[in-house]
Amino acid sequence: MPVEMELDPFVLAKSLSGVHLIDGEFVAPVNGKTFDVLNPATGKSIGQAAEGDKDDVDHAVMVAKAAQKSWAERPARERGKLVAECGRVLNQHVDELGKLIALESGKALRTESRVEASVLADMFVFYGGLASELKGETVPFNPNMMTMTTREPVGVVGAIIPWNVPLLLMAIKVAPALVAGNSVVVKSAEDTPFTVLRVCQIMQQILPKGVLNILSGFGPGCGGPLVEHKDVKKVSFTGSVETGRTVYRAAAEKLIPVTLELGGKSPMIVMDDADLEKAVAGAIGGMRFTRQGQSCTASSRILVHEKLHDEFVSRLKDRVNALKMGNPLDESTDIGTIINAKQRAKVCKYIELGSEEGATKHELSALPDDPELADGQYVRPVIFTDVKPDSRIAREEIFGPVACVFKFKTFEEALELANDSDFGLAATVWTTNLKTALVATKRLEAGFVQVNQNLVVQPNLSYGGIKLSGLGREASLESMLEHFTHKKTIILNME
Length: 495
Ligand code: NAI
Ligand code: MG
What we know:
39% of the residues lie in helices and 20% in strands. By secondary structure, it is α/β, with parallel strands linked by helices. Helix 4 crosses helix 5.
């Protein structure tokens, strides 16, 4: 289907209403049901998403299974070229996609949504180029036997994605899965169905029918049947710990592999020799204040040496205060909204709890005064100081614009505090001392550790966590080989 550019996100959301994308075509859900998708900045409906259930899952998986066979038979580099070409074409739609994400997710266009849309293509281009790395090995097993391994696709992959960074988190599943010769059925998050659908519609111009299919719907009603489907041979999930466990249990019944990326409570250690200004900027970026803190790698535990603590907090407050909350589609807006009313209520509860637990609350920036936005899911950013390490705000993932700042005296104390967490996704340390940096990178218990910077997911860098933050790695060559192929051993007897 040819795809015309549509820069009005309201028109685009309407045009994508009421359908899944199966076998290269938009199709209505079998049960005919839809649900409203709300603009979190106003509370008004922007369209209706198809409410998928088991029947739609059965249809999509059947199609994906049939398409996978001939897709896997194509030369690997041909698949790679097509996936890379998807990236090139998606790059022409950055403005359009950025506006649509801003509309459905509430993430500010300039600081977040357009940025996400513009890094999307890179992931497809990166994985497209890796197609010829799907190599096997020869093994010196026996001189009379030619022994080798090959990498085989797993079959149909089920991808379940969240709403906070829907395009990028979809790309790090879909791109490697396709390049490795699998077909994919994606279940989008209920709050952000349209941008994901749009991306896949654009990709249909390039990919053969049926190798990439998109369903929208609710977790238990649509995601559940996808994980449980007998022909889904691998599940890649990003979301909450609780749902991750449900997915893992269902996958265990079928004995299929899963990748789980499940959030965190990531520490940021600021040593007394740190460049203070850089560290403050790093806290703003790391905490994702412009995304309302809705990030699995958010630096939500900020540990500051007692010598710098007060000055750090004062500068951090000034910086956050300078961020403008407003309409996500407005170019001057720095901070948009929380995703939905339920998440807003959860975040607000934690903010109340923080005060009850004895922390000192600093509520910053200002709510937008536009009456149009009066019903929007806005929450003012909060920095808590004097936080007790065993309090709930210090230990639980809030997934909102709430940062906890702790004061420490010694490096050892900082490391212990940083590692005293059920999570282990990301960690950063800010120091100008090489030895401190090296020791910290060795001792911090996390899948992704950075010194004096706070980058997000990057092509070619393995991304994922330990402890409750999940299983497996994404975004790298190894993740494609380990998670989207299986190794076959082949022996040819020459005697
Ligand atoms: P969730 O984990 O329930 O939803 C994520 C995805 O899983 C969505 O597509 C959802 O429809 C699907 N899902 C839900 N139940 C399912 C089931 N039984 N079977 C299969 N799929 C299912 O997360 P939710 O409710 O949106 O947010 C709750 C919390 O999760 C947040 O406050 C945050 O702490 C965490 N979260 C973490 C994310 C991350 O990037 N690691 C992303 C989104 C949320
Ligand atoms: Mg949930």
